[in-house]
Amino acid sequence: MGIISWIIFGVVAGAIAKFIMPGRMENGFVMTSLLGIVGACVGGFIGTSLGFGKVTGFNLPSFFIAVLGAMIVLIIYGKLKSK
C-alpha cells in the first residue's frame, strides 16, 4: 500500500476516534488528522507487539486497532493539553 492510503486510513481512524471520545475536544481537522495518523501507528505497533493481530491492510481488525490507537493518543493529548 502506498503512503497516501495509509495517511487516509489514519485520518479516518482519527475522525472516528474523536467521534467516539466523550467530552468536547477543541482540536481542528489538521490536529485530529495528525493525531489519528500517529494513533494508527501506535495502535498497530502495540497490537502487533502484544499479539492482538497484525496490521495487514485495509480490513476490519486493522481498522479497529487503528481506532483504538488513535483513542489512546487523543486521551494522552487531552491530558497534556489540559495541564
From TrEMBL:
InterPro entries xref list: Transgly_assoc
Entry keyword Membrane: yes
Signal peptide: none
Membrane topology listed for this record: Multi-pass membrane protein
Keyword field contains rRNA-binding: no
Keyword annotations from UniProtKB, A to Z: Cell membrane, Membrane, Transmembrane, Transmembrane helix
Main location: membrane
Residue intervals passing through the bilayer: 6-21, 28-52, 58-77
Location(s), subcellular: Cell membrane
Pfam hit, one: Transgly_assoc
Lineage: superkingdom: Bacteria
Family: Belongs to the UPF0410 family.
Name of the featured protein: GlsB/YeaQ/YmgE family stress response membrane protein
Organism: Desulfovibrio falkowii
